[in-house]
Amino acid sequence: MFQFNIKYFLIFISVFIIEVIIAVFIKDNFIRPYFGDFLVIFLVYYFLLSFINADKNKIALGVLVFAFTVEIIQYFQVLSYFNLEKNRILRIVAGNTFSLEDLII
Asked: What is the pLDDT of residue 70?
């Protein structure tokens, strides 16, 4: 089940670098909020493939469920409900605002 895969890990690192570049240098209303959210799905997918030797469809489905869960957390403002909106790490993982487009794209 657990097996390190260098190929997927290198893809993960590449996508991570792109995400950091987007976060640090791009301050627009399209690439950062939409393309960045789109890429993070691949980031999580390839991170999991780097360490887990399992059916790729099951991993993809798990990542999709995770992404939808994050959007639901944003919609219901769960961090505010539990008074956790000041926790920087949780805010980064959960994001700031709900967007219906994120569920479709």
From this structure: 87
Would you state the pLDDT for residue 66?
92
Which sequence spans correspond to the domains of the chain? Answer: 6-104
Retrieve residue 47's tokens.
Answer: 């991170």
Rounded CA gap, 91 and 85, in Å?
6
Q: What averages of pLDDT result for each successive group of 10 residues across the chain (105 residues)?
A: 96 96 89 86 97 97 92 87 86 74 69
First and final C-alpha spacing in the chain: 30
Sign of the torsion formed by the C-alpha atoms of 64, 69, 70 and 75: positive
Region of 77 (left: φ > 0; alpha: ψ -120 to 50; beta: rest) is left
Residue 63, Cβ neighbours under 10 Å: how many? 20
C-alpha span between 78 and 85 (Å, rounded): 9
